[in-house]
Amino acid sequence: MVFVFPIRDENRPSKRPFVTYGLIAANVSVFFMQMFNPRYDWFYTYGAIPIEILRGERLWTLLTSMFVHGDLLHLLGNMVFLWIFGDNIEDTLGHAKYLLFYVVGGFIASYAHVASTVLLTYTSRIPYFTPDFGIPTVGASGAISAVLGAYLVLFPRSRIRTLVYLAYILTFASVPAYFYLGFWFLYQILMGFGFLLGAPSSVAFWAHIGGYVYGAAAVKAVGVKPRGKPVQVLREGRIAPITGPLVLTPLVDVLVEGDRVMVLAELPGLEEKDISIEVSEWTVVISAELRDMRFYRQVTLPVPVAPRVQNLLYRNGVLSFTLYRIP
Prior knowledge:
This protein has 327 residues and is an alpha+beta fold. It contains 9 helices and 11 strands.
């Protein structure tokens, strides 16, 4: 069994994401109301029901359905993703445009789910199968999927701190956003086509797909640029890698904590005097040489830094040092 779940990203916003905070608070508040009034039919009252949407009835449920969740795990999963990825999109778009982007993403995601339900009538391979157009759809995942699509376009190399459970081993990994969100989208596509072939599922995969595609296309179409784009590189020209009989690429991990950027690199069997570090505003190059072996790694940083290495330490084959963000 493999379980992968994001904990945080290492790309800090430049201002407080008040809209993201408000959306999380609204979703949590509605869920508490659901808990304290369980006899009320929240799903059929506020959920988006495909047959009603197709008839043009109760279209306001396209909005209310985004704040109703099926259970606690449904809520927590959505809110964690919104907390991790929403702040950077809000930072880039601005508060008002981000809120509009989020709501429109939820609408498009709902329509994508309705369209997939209609299409299921013609694509299902199960004999005599008729989809139920009266099942309500609830949850913020469609709108949040739009946030994920935008994040992939704007911050593809930002690293996502991830909890990984594999074969009874629990560990943490730092992976690029394009890798994590790319595989997330591929999973939605595979499961979405399984749904169209008649595989039963309580998850609206095509709402996720529709929201994700909208989010990526929207920021691409309007030419939005992420805040903090580098305007100057302190070291000009390409840095040529060391060549030789054997070139090794050391493992490097970059952690962003507040105004500090911690860099860790595995360089076994060396002495500190053998290691060379070159830093520019957005790049770190670590190289070393030991007899017939060469170590070389160029790393693109998720945030701009001052090109001054501090707190340098090499112990037990692990190099660590600190850089400070440019405000």
